[in-house]
Amino acid sequence: MFNDDVRKRDVKTPTIVQEVWHDGEFIKWNDARVHVMSHVLHYGSSIFEGIRCYKTRRGPAIFRLREHMQRFLNSAKIYRMEHPWSLEELCDASVQLVARGGLQQCYVRPIMFRSLDEERPAFGVNPFPNPMACYIGAWDWGKYLGDEAIEQGVDVCVSSWNRLTPNSMPAMAKAGANYMNSQLIKMEAITNGYAEGIALDDRGYVSEGSGENIFLVHDGKVVTPPLASSILPGITRDSVIEICRALEIPLVESGIQRAALYVADELFFSGTAAEITPIRSVDRITVGAGSRGPVTERIQKAFFEITSGEREAPGEWLTFVGEYKPAAENNGHNRAQGGGARKAASHAPTSDSRDAVHVTLTE
Ligand SMILES: Cc1ncc(COP(=O)(O)O)c(C=O)c1O
Question: In angstroms, rounded to a whole number, what is the distance separating the alpha carbons of residues 165 and 59?
């Protein structure tokens, strides 16, 4: 049915940053450990983020750092996690970690979880007695769905597992426990010879991949499921929405029937790990011409030009590590446009709204 190579395949991990940020300090990678009786291991009580740092001509630049950290704080708030960390401190810590690691490009992983107070241990489901721990690690991570996937696309299936229902687990929080659902979707897909699975929501509408949002192109119009379809409000999804706006490609958020996937002109995934990955077949039904479509290619090209700093972003999306000043010393001037332009474009969001990721909180 499947061989071990397929089951064990993951992105090659060439380099790991040998320090980890922990509660305000940098510790050695090897010292970043938890007790096996920590609450998080038994009850899934963690929230986390996945952030990419890209190589640019101005040195490493973290993509949409504030938006990721704002989502991190939102996830903590949803799960009533009390902690002392501010948006600025978490951004500062991430930049420092990347700078200390010396990598030109990497993936940054903040995580906050309920641990164990070894002097006054608590073992019940009630999370409140357990202390909070916060770490940020980083490593160089390649193309999540394979090097060739970015151009050629991936073969995917519709999963027999549904996405979380809104009143059981909030999909808009990026919580570790949600990824048990993602693992079921991913394992089923891999076991059956697909690169990824697409989950439907509890009403049967298209939701998202195990670790990606999804977009459909039909008659030149781009469609993506709304937040009400139990999706994670993806930062890359928001970037695609903004890129479509800038390229004047019409886009709507709308419920999508499973069958619409089969007859779409183009489909693609968006995500920090997957970036913009075309989908060439669903359930062995070829999508469009069976390769990356022209609209996907335009959006993907703009995305990679922005992340490499070669094209002006629709907002202040890049935090240049080498030019960064800690929050206490700056006046909000850490992020800049790509392409060397330092002044925000006239349509860039104001400082009040710039951390708001484009989400429609209702249908
Ligand atoms: C379930 C799920 N949906 C969507 C995404 C895409 O979100 P983002 O673009 O913020 O990485 C991810 C990845 O983080 C994910 O895990």
Answer: 42
